[in-house]
């Protein structure tokens, strides 16, 4: 086994050396966009009819990326203006069949990919580091999403103050976007910014783009952006944003029979732009009442599940904390949900301070948070700290370090590490390639053992071939207090290859957009080299149709060696030992842009010493953006010699909107493990960008098999929260 690991490591570095030698760094040509300065910006109504727009220089050099690379498509016209305080982007999307335009969402951040509706995506790189950028997404109803882009990935975690309006027209649709310069970080006195614009025509499953129009180009990669010239002499005011809030709360625990309790509360966040792209923030009595509850899941493994961060204060600047090459669900040296959350309960946050942004080619963020005591959980007042710094090197690469201090339990815990990522979108001329490594060391209360973790990865993510391989080592004494590590005392190796041809001829070419043939191998060994888990995933048939439907069939053989007796469900205990079992998986989903869409996934086969069936069903109904109904169910049936078990999770979302700025979101969840029914109701009224009123109501019931009362109320809470943003 040691020889095998040595062989793998040697071949990694041999491949690295050969790869770097054959890199072609010739830059691709990209168009240029000219921003025109106006004394007064246009009125925001979604129409490009304001007098100011007549001064803009129209850009129509858009080309199709999918399905036919480089081909012309529906006419798309881009215009860019700016005044002393705002950037204005106008896009006119002509459409030969305007009655078929898809515009079914009004919710903020409703569509992570921006592909369920006819959509415009704008990428801005106002610091020209070609690694990170802002993205702004608008659909035909004016529904907005915003986030951060990096390489082939993006995240809607970041929330900025900006505005947009859209109009459905007789010959297409148009949108106006207004982005205050106070909202985005930028480097002063640059000769140009990076910009890219992408248009999605949902019913055609068609992507049109301004720059980076090859199938191997990622829209989220700032290195593919066009040049945005002409921006200068900007005013940022004081650079201060003050966000006070007031909240009124009412709650009652029905089991304690103490009657309702009422509270008045308040706090504030204050932001200061020390430079246009370096920000400081301080939050007092931090409140997260408006945050949507976590979704409930069924866990059939012996390891904890990863849940994403949703709290705004922790999300801003969080992209800089991205570290190493391991997925966040496998290992995150800093996981902000370790702060202010403990055993499913919210721990009060007294204050939090942070700085984040960029100083030249250096990206950095430092976070310090104080949580209050929580006697019910036995927690005293605690302080947490995390810092991350990385330096841009070469065209798209970086080298950095990370440091954390603290633990939710109050024990002394320190982690430090560094990473090096080489990345390029010019491999062999115009393809994507990444290779990187990382190392961390953890000082904690465990006296003996291996306190380090490290890993490296090689990735070739392109349209026809996507090949990736990685290795990670997690010591037996590795226990990061502010990190997420579901599985320690293991070595992990994985290899995946995806071959994804696009048929263009014959009947298959007319029906199928893309095939996905994939093979993935995953191995976990303990630190002595003994196999713990082996998973092989083979997809011999998987494709997407031209209309957006998806079908997949996969075979998953697995070996798992249980080091201890494993209680997979209540009262069902699988004895320790080695098990070989195979699952078959079928998946089908209709195109998400349809007013009615359906998804079904069914897996069945062996499961340790018995058999398992799992069915996941989703149904989505949308009506012109004003209403949407989403139902999901996860149904598990296990039949083992040690016992049978049924576990189910049901979720229902019913959302209603008068406009993208006023909506009522209702989220019902029930699972028969906890036997609890939960309701999360949120009314959001954005009076103006940054000034929002929330009304949040939560209630939980417990199901009991009593004919007289099937559901017993447990607790309920209601919050009225008013938040303002003041930017002198």
Description:
By secondary structure, the protein is mainly β. The chain contains 3 helices and 43 strands. It has a 24-stranded antiparallel barrel. The longest helix is centred in the first third of the chain and has 20 residues, at 2-21.
Concise overview:
This protein has 728 residues and is mainly β.
The share of residues in helices is under 10%
Radius of gyration: 26 Å
CATH class of one domain: Mainly Beta
Globular, elongated, flat, extended or rod-shaped: what is the shape?
globular
Amino- and carboxy-terminal Cα gap: 64 Å
Which structural class best describes the helix and strand composition? Answer: mainly beta
CATH architectural label of one domain: Sandwich
CATH topology of one domain: Immunoglobulin-like
The share of residues in extended strands comes to over 45%
Number of DSSP helices? 3
Major sheet details: 24 strands, antiparallel, barrel
Pick out the low-confidence regions.
1-28
**How many beta-strand segments?**
43
> What average pLDDT do the residues reach?
89
Provide the fold topology.
Blueprint: H1 2-21, E1 32-34, E2 36-37, E3 63-66, E4 76-82, E5 86-94, E6 119-125, E7 133-139, E8 144-150, E9 153-155, E10 163-169, E11 172-180, E12 192-201, E13 206-209, E14 226-229, E15 240-253, E16 261-275, E17 278-286, H2 312-315, E18 341-342, E19 345-346, E20 349-359, E21 362-371, E22 382-393, E23 397-405, E24 414-427, E25 431-443, E26 452-461, E27 465-474, E28 490-499, H3 506-511, E29 512-515, E30 517-525, E31 531-545, E32 550-562, E33 566-569, E34 572-574, E35 577-589, E36 596-607, E37 610-623, E38 627-640, E39 643-659, E40 662-671, E41 676-688, E42 691-703, E43 711-723
Parallel strand pairs: 1-14, 2-4
Antiparallel strand pairs: 3-13, 4-5, 5-11, 6-7, 6-12, 7-8, 8-9, 10-11, 12-13, 12-14, 15-16, 15-43, 16-17, 17-20, 18-19, 20-21, 21-22, 22-23, 23-24, 24-25, 25-26, 26-27, 27-28, 28-30, 29-31, 30-31, 31-32, 32-35, 33-34, 35-36, 36-37, 37-38, 38-39, 39-40, 40-41, 41-42, 42-43
